[in-house]
């Protein structure tokens, strides 16, 4: 897959436990490349026998956990070029992640 750009332009909360509302940055059209990568990885995992695809998740960048809910709020667009993706293992409840493998993306389209 070629390198691609990502743009996040909405701050909002996901629903969480009372007093623990995740505040995130999201994008609509600016995350198409990420959605395509997610679909390609899910299809490859399914082909390799890892079961049916998981439900689609919302691409986001976690900012913090807060005590109040924030409705969608446009923010100044923040973007970058994605040149690799990393397969990580999250150590549940420890707030740590181990990088298992890195995959470089091709030349920008």
Structure description:
It is a single chain. This protein has one domain. The termini are close together. The strands form 2 sheets. The protein has a 4-stranded antiparallel β-sheet with strand order 3-2-1-4. Strands 5-6 form a two-stranded antiparallel sheet. The longest helix is centred in the middle third of the chain and has 16 residues. The protein has 109 residues and is mostly beta strands. The chain is globular, with a radius of gyration of 16 Å. A hairpin with a 7-residue loop joins strand 1 and strand 2.
Structural class: mainly beta
What is the oligomeric state here? single chain
Name the overall outline.
globular
Rounded radius of gyration (Å): 16 Å
Strand percent estimate: over 45%
Total beta-strand segments? 6
The number of helical segments is 1
> Helicity range of the residues?
10-25%
For the largest sheet, list the strands in their spatial order: 3-2-1-4
The first-to-last residue Cα distance is: 9 Å
Mean pLDDT: 88
Q: How do the SSEs run, as a string of H and E? A: EEHEEEE
Largest sheet: 4 strands, antiparallel
Number of domains: 1
The poorly predicted ranges are: none
């Amino acid at each position: 897959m070629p390198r691609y750009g990502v743009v996040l332009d909405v701050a909002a909360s996901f629903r969480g436990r009372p007093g623990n509302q995740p505040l995130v940055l999201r994008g609509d059209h600016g995350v198409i490349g990420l959605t395509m990568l997610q679909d390609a990885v899910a299809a490859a995992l399914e082909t390799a026998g890892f079961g049916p695809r998981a439900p689609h998740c919302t691409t986001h960048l976690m900012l913090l956990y807060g005590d109040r809910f924030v409705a969608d709020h446009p923010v100044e667009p923040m973007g970058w070029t994605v040149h690799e993706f990393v397969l990580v293992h999250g150590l549940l409840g420890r707030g740590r992640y181990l990088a298992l493998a890195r995959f470089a993306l091709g030349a920008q389209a």
